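User: Fold this; tokens only.

Assistant: Input:
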Amino acid sequence: MIYLDNAATTYPKPYSVVNAVRESFLQYGANPGRGGYRMSMDTAEKIFRVRENLSKTFRCGAPERVVFTQNCTHALNLAMKCFLPRGAHIVISDREHNAVMRPLEAMQAEGLITYSIANIGRDVPNAAAYFARKITQNTAALLCVHTSNVDGQVMPIAEIGRLAVKFGMLFIVDAAQAAGNAVIDMAADGIDLLCMPGHKGLYGPTGCGVLLIRDRAPVRTLTEGGTGTDSMLKKQPMQLPEALESGTMAVNSILGLGEGLRFVNELGAGNIGEHERQLRKELVEKTEGLSGLKIYEPTRSSGIYLFNFEGMCCERTAAELEKEDIAVRAGLHCAPSAHEVLGTLPDGAVRISFGVFNDREQVSKTASALWKISKNV
């Protein structure tokens, strides 16, 4: 199989990640931070090393400001529900995933916050100006996806971050499609809360996400319970990371993520991103002139090739590629807002997303399959 659905989850995983997960079951099976015996302490130490490496890689300031979550959606919910004061106004981009839209809709319906959408459209280089137009006296935060999971559009995060710093507002970034294939510096880009999954560009297992926090403290908690610290308190401890980490952690996934991060850092996130962009560029070149093909070109692309055939439903196109043993994803990709910008509602489009293990031979085979499909449109 040619796997081209890396924007959903990367596959295959590096052997080192698989081995780290296996080792975690054999050597680090205890509950971290809950016991004074050797295995529990060793497990806690391993998890701390992952925190430390994440903190250094993304420059959030300190290991304790790395919070492990279930996934990126969980991290985004924590960022919005635990750090925004009640009554706050938040400005978001017009390309946000449902992991942002649905929590905000729920919070607004409950009267907890209000939000506005910066209608950037295709004028992405000037995105910060569109955010600025939506700022009001009670705007407490800006939120923007780093890289769209639909067409791979890379947003001008540094410029939006400077705007947030200028007005003293929180800057929340959804790095679901950027962590691991783009260089992200929280300090330099003015990012206060950075949300990411472990199973995408960081090449870890599913079941683990990360919220990185720079110089901020939560105003409330989302889940309360055991932390292994301050057990006599009836209230949730408010120090990080305990304030946002209740209950037993996904040790196996976290240690797998740690090895995935090491793999990415050895190759270099920038190098991985360039590899993916080159594969996309080659596929664009090999499908140039293909009858009925519409490619949705972002102003600054990542490794995502989004397309449709005129007269063919995107789901059918994906099914035809599956017959050629090529795995892609069709539809709305849980981000109808981005599809609205692209004009691909209500059906969506076909997404090809490259990863570090894809190569030029797979690009050639995919291009041949697309040429074959085009003859049947």
